[in-house]
Amino acid sequence: MAINKHTAHSVLLRHRQNMETAMEQIFDPRLLRQAFGRYATGVTVVTARLSDGKQIGVTANSFTSVSMSPPLISWNYRRDASGYEAFLGARHFAVHVLGHHQRHLSPQFASAVADRFKDVELDEGLGGVPLIRDCGATFECRQWSTVEAGDHVIILGEVLRFTHNDTAPLVFHAGSYLQLPAAQCT
């Protein structure tokens, strides 16, 4: 029996639709989040100052270096999160790599409290961006571009200035904070 192009295309299309339905059933979001959590990350707080002077900040573990020339970094932000539009409108922002001694800042900047900056020692960076003191590293950036990616946006920043030290980093893995042995932090 010969199969014509139309029949073959229809069979492939039905197979693709069946596979997509099966994948939707397999990908339990809770299990997928657990699988993503198996990847250990550093913990950062991203801060910015809006044109009206208001400070905004959020915890993010999606930070990564992108390019050395030009010096670029990226971080991701959920599109339905409060502050989404504000961060997209901020010309400058800073990414703070938290040290283990700053563990308390991670939930503080991830919460819905009215003033996430309460009791946080700050300096002022480029564009008036609030800079958290004593972090393992701080990257002061100008927004380079954004990329829509599913339920998140990827925010790319051009690094204009940075600092770093030998502070032991705050690490997050499988829903818990970890501390690296001191010998691995230099």
Polypeptide structure, described:
- The protein has helices at residues 5-26, 29-36, 84-89, 105-110, and strands at 41-42, 44-49, 55-60, 64-68, 71-78, 92-97, 122-124, 130-132, 137-149, 152-164, 170-173, 176-179.
- The strands form three sheets. The chain has a seven-stranded antiparallel β-sheet.
- The relative contact order is 0.18.
- Helices cover 23% and strands 39% of the residues.
- The mean pLDDT is 86.
- By secondary structure, it is α+β, with helices and mostly antiparallel strands.
- β7 (122-124) and β8 form a beta hairpin.
- It contains four helices and twelve strands; from the N terminus they run ααβββββαβαββββββ.
Shape call = globular
Helical residues, percent: 10-25%
- Class computed from helices, strands and strand pairing: alpha+beta
- Work out the number of β strands: 12
Q: Give the SSE string.
A: HHEEEEEHEHEEEEEE
The CA-CA distance between the termini, in Å, is 69 Å
Offer a quick outline of the entry.
This protein is α+β, with helices and mostly antiparallel strands and 186 residues long.
